[in-house]
Structures are given as C-alpha cells and as structure tokens.
Amino acid sequence: MHIPDGYLSPQTYIPLFVASAAIIGVAVRKVKKQMTTKLVPFLGMSAAFAFLIMMFNLPIPGGTSGHAVGGALIALLFGPWVAMISVSVALMIQAFVFGDGGITALGANCFNMAIVLPFLAYGIFKLVSGKSKNPGRMNIAAFLSGYLSLSVVSFVTAFEFGIQPIIASSPNGTPLFAPYPLKIAIPAMVIEHLILFSIIEGIITVLLFRYFYKNNKELIEVLK
C-alpha cells in the first residue's frame, strides 16, 4: 500500500501532504495533553509494531504493495490520535531510511494509513460493539475494525492511483504518472486486500485486542 515516487502528480501529493501535516500537527497537540509516563513506552512500542508489520509486504500490479498496517489495533488500544502518530513515524522511517514508499508520496501514505485507517477502525468498533461488553461481540467488532478499515484504505489508495490518467496527462493523452485507470487500479488493490491482507489485519487486531482485554483492560481507549 506504500505509494512510491513518480506515481502521484503534484496536484495529488501536495494537497495530501499539506492535509496530513495539518492533521498530524493536531494529533501531536492532543497526544501531548493526554501523555502520561505509562503511555510513553506504549507509544514507542506502537510505532515499532506498525513499522514491523508493514515491512512484510508483497508487490501488487500497478506499482504499489499489499500488507497489513497494525493501525486498527493501535487505534483501539490507545485511540486514533496516538495511532496516527505511531503509524506516521513508522512510515517516515520506512520512506527516509529504507526507501519503502516515496518521499513525495509520504503525505499520501500518511493520509491513507495513518489518518483514514485509525479513525475508520475506531468508528467501526464503536458502531459494531455499541455499549456491549459481550466478549463475542467485541471480538467481532475488533476483527471488522481491522478488516474493513484496511479494505477501505486500499480503495482510497487505488482511487488516488486511478485518477492520475484523468488529471495528469500529456496533450496526446499519455499519462504522466500512474498509468492505470480506475477500472484497473481499484480491482488490483482492493481484491487482494479483501481476500488476504485485510483478513490478516483483522486477525492481528482481534487476537491482540483479546490479549489486552484479558490483561490490561484499563488501557484500552475504545472501551472508555
């Protein structure tokens, strides 16, 4: 799901960079207010967890990759604002140190995986679980929060790819950036996530959510 350099036009990556920087700035201020000595190590662990899980990626036709993110679990445990910072830090390290994801596309990658995904996951859990404390219902909510949030983000990423031939082409119609239209980009990204990567995200989310629920229930932000 990491978008490399050269696949997004400036018309796309500049607005997404500005939007991501502004939203992450808000996240930093919010997390500073809720930061405690107990939360600090978990913030570092969350960034390391997101970094590690995103390193296991497979190429997808069209110039990107498929993988789990871990952002859904972090959002459920510590809130979407903490997840936003954790995943953003992981994405920055991957882009600048390991070349996984483009520098120009960093804003888009942060927008997709660090902003959209955590808030979707958090909202989906709240919607499915309601106020129920039934373990079975919470497990379903945790799985769906991971599965659906990553699936939606794969669509968002594919949409960003697919509009490039429309908004950035040469006078003779040749695409200047990502060459694949929506009808190719969306199936290529979304189908592989629906049948594999989103399932992995859902399983990781529900298994680790259950562990924290049994051992550190008081830490779980989504239950407060």
Architecture overview:
The model has no long low-confidence stretch (mean pLDDT 91). This protein has a single domain (10-223), classed as Arp2/3 complex 21 kDa subunit ARPC3 (Orthogonal Bundle), CATH 1.10.1760. The radius of gyration is 17 Å and the shape is globular. With 224 residues, it is mostly helical. It has helices at residues 10-34, 39-54, 71-78, 80-97, 106-129, 135-162, 164-167, 182-215, and strands at residues 58-60, 64-66. It has eight helices and two strands, in the order H-H-E-E-H-H-H-H-H-H. A hairpin with a 3-residue loop joins strand 1 (58-60) and strand 2 (64-66).
What is the strand and helix layout of this fold?
Elements: H1 10-34, H2 39-54, E1 58-60, E2 64-66, H3 71-78, H4 80-97, H5 106-129, H6 135-162, H7 164-167, H8 182-215
Antiparallel strand pairs: 1-2
Helix pairs in contact: 1-4, 1-5, 2-4, 3-4, 3-5, 3-6, 3-8, 4-5, 5-6, 6-8
Keywords:
224 residues, 2 strands, Arp2/3 complex 21 kDa subunit ARPC3, two-stranded antiparallel ribbon, mainly alpha, 3% strand, 70% helix, single chain
